[in-house]
Structure formats: C-alpha cells, structure tokens
Hints:
alpha+beta, FAD/NAD(P)-binding domain, D-Amino Acid Oxidase, Chain A, domain 2, 2 domains, eight-stranded mixed sheet, seven-stranded mixed sheet, 20 strands, 23% strand, globular, binds flavin-adenine dinucleotide
Amino acid sequence: MHDVIVIGGGPAGSTAAALLARRGFKVVLFERDKFPRFQIGESLLPYNNDVFRRLGIFDTLCETFFPKYGGTFVTADGSAKTVFRFDRNLTPPYQRAFQVKRADFDLLLLDHARASGAEVHEQKQVTKVDVADPARAVVTTADGVAHEARFVIDAAGHGTFLGQKIGGKSDVEELKRVAVFSHYKNVLREEGREGGNTVIVVLRDAWFWLIPLSDELMSVGLVLDREHFLKCGLEPLELLERTIAQTPYVAERMTNSERVMDVKVRRDFSYRMKSVAGENFVMAGDAAGFLDPIFSTGVMLAMKSAERAADAVAEKLERGSMKLLRRYERESQVSIDRYFQFIANFYRREFLEVFLSPDPPRLFFFPIIRVLGGDVLSSWLDRMRLALFFRLVALQKRWAFSPRIAWDALPPPASV
Ligand SMILES: Cc1cc2nc3c(=O)[nH]c(=O)nc-3n(C[C@H](O)[C@H](O)[C@H](O)COP(=O)(O)OP(=O)(O)OC[C@H]3O[C@@H](n4cnc5c(N)ncnc54)[C@H](O)[C@@H]3O)c2cc1C
C-alpha cells in the first residue's frame, strides 16, 4: 500500500508529489504521456515564486527560462495601453516571473519530483479510481493493474478525472470560449525589459496573447467566443492569421513573422467544482477548476493549490485531521471567485476603460497588481480597495470619468 497516489505529472502533480515525498511519504505518480510533451500555459506569475523557492528550484528557473518583468494590456489599434511593472509595484521576491516552454518546464518539475523521492511512471494512464472506502483509494491503470493507497490526489488537469464523477463539475456559462494558437519567429517586441512582458491585445469580444518564450520565439494566441468560432466559417489557421492581419497592433509586429508550429485549438476550458476534497481524495490544479486564461493564473493556481493540498494530505495522514483539507476546500472556492470577478469583468467595456485608463488611480492599481500577480488570498485592506474599484467600474458605465474606448471601432475576430 502506497501512502499517496498522484494522477498526472503536470505542475500540480509534480509539486504535490515532490513536497509529500520530501516529508517521507511513499508517493507514486502516474502520468499518461511521455515527457517532454507540449502543453499550453506559458506565462507565469510572480507569486508562483513562493512555491519555486519552497521546492528549491528558483535559481535553476532563473538560469533556464526567459524573464518576465510585467504585463502590457493594449487595444487592437494601440490607442489605449497600460503597462504593469513588477519592480515598481511589488516587493523584491516578486519582481520577476518567467515565460516558459511548458515542455521543458514540466519536465524539470517532474524530474524534480523524482529526485525528491517520488516514484514516477510515465505513459501510465489511470482509467479508474475508487474512493468509496474512506480508509483507502484504489487506482487502476490502463494495463489493468489496481494500486492501493491511503490517499489519492487528482492532478490530471482539464480531464478532471475525479471531478467528472464526484466533484460536481459544471461549465462556466459566461466563459464559453475557444483559444487558437501557435508559435512564431521574428515577431517584433519592445526594447529592454518590457520586451519580456506578456502582451494582451484587446479586440471586440476577443483578445490576443503575445508571450515571448525566448529571444526568437513568440507564442501567439487568439481567445474568442465559442459561438463565433463555430459560425465564422474559417479553419483555425485561417481564423488566426486573418484576425492577426486585421488587428493593427499585432499585424505591425508580425509583418515578417514565420509560424514554426501547427495551429492548436483548446475549447470550453472554463469550469468549476462543487467539491474538491474528501476523506481520501483531493483535487489540485486544473483538476479542481479552471477559468479563462486572460490573467495567466493557471500554473500559479495549480502549483499553489498543489502545495496547500500536499500540506493538507500530510496533516490527514499524520494526525487524522481534516482541518487543512476543509480549509483547502474553502480557499479553492475563494481563489476561483476572486479571479472570476476580474475575468468576467474583463469582457466588459467599462472595466477595460478603467483598467486601460492612462492615469489609473494608484489606490486601486497596487492591489490589482498584487492580485493579478498571484496574491489571490490578499489582505482585507486590498480586498476593500478592490471592492471600491469594482464600484468605480459600475459607475463608469454611466459617468465615464475614464476616457471612453472606441468600442465599435475595435476589430472583431475574422469571419468569411
Ligand atoms: C488557452 C489556454 C491558455 C493558457 N495560458 C496560460 C498562461 O499563459 N499561464 C498560465 O499560468 N496558465 C495558462 N493556462 C492554464 C494552464 O495551461 C493550466 O492551468 C496548467 O497547465 C494546469 O496545470 P495542471 O498540473 O493542473 O494540469 P496539466 O498541466 O494539464 O497536467 C495534467 C497532466 O495529467 C496527465 N493526465 C491526464 N489524465 C491522466 C490520466 N487519466 N492518467 C494519468 N495522467 C493523466 C496529463 O497528461 C498532464 O500531463 C492556459 C490554459 C488555456 C486553456
């Protein structure tokens, strides 16, 4: 009997496996694929650094991955723009983040879990989990072998292995979207540190990400409504390239670009769970819920949730206490709710007008950067300021104290 079985070797699974193995638990991790493998989710957030430091890999990441010092939000014609700089607005441990090729990043984390003492099996898909007996979990792999453990962690990502069956998974209706993306060479970027920023380009009811992965490579993705995607009459490659061509800010930067990867599509990626923990199981990372990628929160939430889940599992196995698991369950909902407020608002004109205003009120700017940097369970003072910020957004609709965006002049995604 193992102590813990972890399903999935992405950032959440590797983090949980490494932390529990280091505490002396007998951990086995089953990963369906063979690493390195492609994954989307390439722009990381500064508050992820807490977990990197606890794992002891922060310096290795600094040597290996492209530095990100901030984020830029800009309208499709370049007329309204806000730049968030971590060094101006966050304390030293959070003044840089990373842009990563996920194949390399996830391999580094999985190897780190192995080196920390977890038994890792790649190309071993889990096909069944039985958690009916609270004293043990039985996990069956594709080869038909049943494995027993005192606890199971579902970190299987958007496949939401346990969530489908016992988590009460539900899609988020307001966020039914599709992402179409690829990697390009020769995309122009800003000079100096700003050149490492993730750039979000706002269209009408859609947006682009531009994420620099190295000096040469840029990840470019378009996120749009599912309805538009289904009805536009264009194949994904055509949709992506035509929308690039009709978005001045992106087109100018991509005049001489060259695509170096197939175009990929991800759809219906926003969902929540009613319940993410029980006596002998817990869900972490995307397996516990995921919202729209607009603020690059996925990997940070995956790793922070895995860290908190690992501590809660350790407490349960060592002392039989459910206290941390219950807290984990509560905090998972709080994190998702807090980001949901930003994400749902991002698609509203009045939010963007305040968010992209040339002189945003400082009182709100700092807590926004902290939350969007990944400090999701922020102080009560920040929470009060954010409540005021959202009040201001509501008033903007009527009073327009931030400059209006020429919404109807913004290009929509392409169609035939
Ligand atoms: C379009 C899009 C853009 C995004 N952009 C960003 C971004 O810029 N920044 C960011 O931080 N996040 C981003 N994300 C989110 C990010 O991709 C995820 O939040 C992150 O990968 C979650 O990590 P995870 O470990 O929970 O899951 P995953 O990375 O999905 O890892 C899960 C692992 O489980 C394995 N697995 C699945 N089923 C089984 C099984 N049955 N048995 C065994 N193994 C299994 C899979 O092979 C996989 O390796 C984006 C998401 C989308 C959809």
